[in-house]
Amino acid sequence: MRKVYIDYNATTPLRPEVKAAMIEDLDIFGNASSMHASGRLARARVEQARIAVGNLIGSKDGTIIFTSGGSEANNTVFQTMRRITELKDFKLPGNAGFNSRNEFITTAIEHPCVLNSALFLKNSGFNVTIIPVDEYGKIKIDELEKALNDKTLLVSVMAANNEIGTIQDVKEITALVKKAGAFMHIDAVQAVGKIPLNAAELGADYITISAHKIYGPKGIGALYVKKGSPVFPLVHGGHQEDGLRAGTYNNLGILGFGKAAEIIKNEVTRYGNEISALRDRLRKGLVEKVPHIKINGHPKDVLPNTLNVSFPGAEGEAILLSLDMQGIEASTGSACASGSLEASHVLLATGVGPELAHGSIRFSLGWGIAEEDIDYIIEVLPPIIARLRAMSTLPA
Ligand SMILES: *Cc1c(COP(=O)(O)O)cnc(C)c1O
Fold first, then answer.
1. Which terminal residue of the chain, N or C, has fewer Cβ atoms less than 10 Å from its own Cβ?
2. Count of CB atoms within 10 A of residue 372's CB?
3. To which H or E segment does residue 28 belong?
4. Residues near ligand 1 (Cβ within 6 A)
C-alpha cells in the first residue's frame, strides 16, 4: 500500500541532509559553556547555527534565543510582558511608562499556545482583546486599529495560520502597532521557509520559529528579539544564551536546526512554485470529483502547501480513519486540538458552522510528496466521502 504523509503543518520529517549532519554531530558532546577544547568546539557550532537561523529570517542585529520550541518562544514573550507590568520603574530608552500598559491584543485564530497564554495573561490582570477574522481568516484590521490605544502593551499575530494557511499582512499590522507604541510579536512558525519573511524589514519586536516545521528536529525553536526590545528569561539558572534561557545547550537540536535553516533559506521560491502546483492539483481533483465541498482559507493569501476542505455530510474523524486505513495521513486541524473532539476554533472564527467544521480536513504538503501521491488521494478520497455521506444523518 502506498503511504502518503500529508500533515506537514503538524510536523515534518527530518530531511536527509539534516539527518546526516546530525548523525555526524552526535559526537559533538562538549558542554558549550565549558572553557576547554570540547566545549569551545560545541560552542562554535552552536554560534554557527545561530547565525544560520538569524539569516533564515533576515535578522540584522537582533538576538536569536534558542528555546525548546515555538511554544516556549511564544511564552517567553508573554511572560516578559507580565514582568514588565510588575516592574514599577520599567523604562526603555525613548519610551516611558510601559508599566502603565496592561493590554494584550491577539486574534481569534492563533495557535493554542498563544490563546491559552492570553487566558493566562487575563487571569494575571491583563485586559485581553481578541480580534476577529473575516470568512477567509484575515484579521479585521479596522478592529485592530480600534482596539489599539495607549494602554496596549503587546500585539501578537501569526504570520500564517497552521489550519487554513491564511497569510496575514504582518508588515502593515506591525506598522500600526509600532505607531501605537506597543510591542509586536509574530508567530512565524508556519510561515518561515514557505513564504519570504524578513525580520529587519518587518520591524517586529519578536518573532517565533520552530525547527520541526522546517524539516529539523523536534524540541528546538528560537525567539528573535529586535535590538533594544525587552526580554526576560522564562527559565532561570545558568548564564546560557546571555542569561536569557538557562539550561545546558541542546547541541544536537541546535545544530540540526541550523542545518535545516541553512538549506530552506534558499528554497522558498522553489517551494512556492512546486508545492503550490501539487496543492492546486489536489484542490482541482477534489473539486472535480467530490460534490458540495467547501475550500477554507484565503483564495490568494494562503500558504503554498495548505489545503483545508469541508465535506458537508461527512464527519472529519471518520474521514481521517478511512484515509489512514489507505495509508494517507492527514489531519482535522491542528495536532494540538486533535482528539479533543472540539470543533476547530479557526474554522468557527471564519464563520464555518460547528457541523461543517467537524467535517473538515487539512492537507498540508511538503518536500517529499509526489504527483502520484496526490493522484492517489484524488482516487481514494471520493468513494470514502460518498460512503460516509450515504451512512450519515448529517445534512449534505
Ligand atoms: C507548531 C506551532 C507552534 C508550536 O511550536 P512547537 O515547536 O511545536 O512548540 C506554534 N505556533 C504555530 C503557528 C505552530 O504551527
1. N
2. 9
3. none
4. 69-71, 111, 113, 158, 162, 187, 189-190, 210, 212-213, 221
336 carries an active-site annotation: yes
Four-CA torsion 18, 24, 30, 31, nearest 10 degrees: 10
DSSP string covering 131-189? E-B-TTS-B-HHHHHHH--TTEEEEEEESB-TTT-BBP-HHHHHHHHHHTT-EEEEE-T
pLDDT the model gives residue 94:
54
**Cell numbers representing residue 48 in the block:** 554557527
Evaluate the CA torsion angle 235, 56, 154, 119 in order and state its sign: negative
C-alpha separations of 160 from 213, 284, 364, 395 in Å: 13, 23, 13, 32
Phi, psi angles (nearest 5°) of residue 381 = -70, -45
108, 130, 318, 336: the catalytic one is: 336
Give bridge partners of residue 104 from the DSSP assignment.
128, 154
Q: How many CA atoms lie within 13 A of 66 on its CB side?
A: 27
Residue 363 CB contacts under 8 Å (≥ 6 apart), including other chains: 6, 279, 282, 306, 307, 308, 309, 330, 377
CA separation for the pair 163, 141 (Å, rounded):
21
Q: Is 242 left (phi over 0), alpha (psi -120 to 50) or beta?
A: left
- Ligand 1 pocket mutation, candidates 78, 163, 190, 254, criterion most atoms within 8 A of CB: 190
**Which residues, 6+ apart, have CB-to-CB distance to 261 below 8 Å?**
49, 52, 53, 55, 56, 211, 214, 216
Output the CA 136–ligand 1 centroid distance in Å: 21
Q: Would you list the DSSP string of 216-285?
A: S-SS-EEEEE-TT-----SS-SSSGGGGTS-S---HHHHHHHHHHHHHHHTTHHHHHHHHHHHHHHHHHH
- Using alpha carbons, list the distances in angstroms from residue 290 to 51, 223, 282, 300, 377: 47, 42, 12, 22, 12
Low-confidence ranges of the chain (pLDDT < 70): 92-99, 334-341, 394-396
Say if residues 184 and 174 touch (Cβ distance below 8 Å).
yes
Quick one: pLDDT at residue 394? Answer: 64
